[in-house]
Amino acid sequence: MNATAGPPNPGALNRVLEPLFRTVRKLIIVLALLAGTAVLVMTAVTVTDVVLRMFKAGIVGAYDIVCICGVVAISCALPYITAVKGHIAIEFFYRSFSRVGRRILDSVFRLVALALFAFLVFQNIRYGLSLQAAGELMPTLKMPVFWMPLLIAFNAFLVFIVIVYHLLHPGKEMIVS
Fold this sequence. Notes:
By secondary structure, this protein is mostly helical. It has one domain (19-168). Helix content is 73%, strand content 0%. The radius of gyration is 21 Å and the shape is elongated.
């Protein structure tokens, strides 16, 4: 047995995972742009529909389009917000702990978040597949809806990866905004 063998080198793990993190960073940026576009589309459809209704017309499926854009905007923005650490932190609560205490508390919260997002991935995949099996469609546009929970699951999985990054790199954002 090698006497110098100790715990695994965290630098080696980071070197192995860095290509994954680089790819995830690029994907998160693309999804953030998609989220912003969805907000713009949602706004344009809503304003256009309201104006057209003043002239006794409207956009067929406006409600469905706005719902789709809402799902895309929220789910695709979540990985970016997590990567830049843009969530609201409870600073008053954190300040009552020492630096080491804050790191421990942050790590515990991130481990709980990992469990939560793993659960969200699993449940959204199950739900999406059940919607696909049932042939569920949007009320007006008659579009399949199964892909929306799958999109949420995909983005929750990206958040899971971002949280792993934050656990391996405490105090560092994955993407600097």
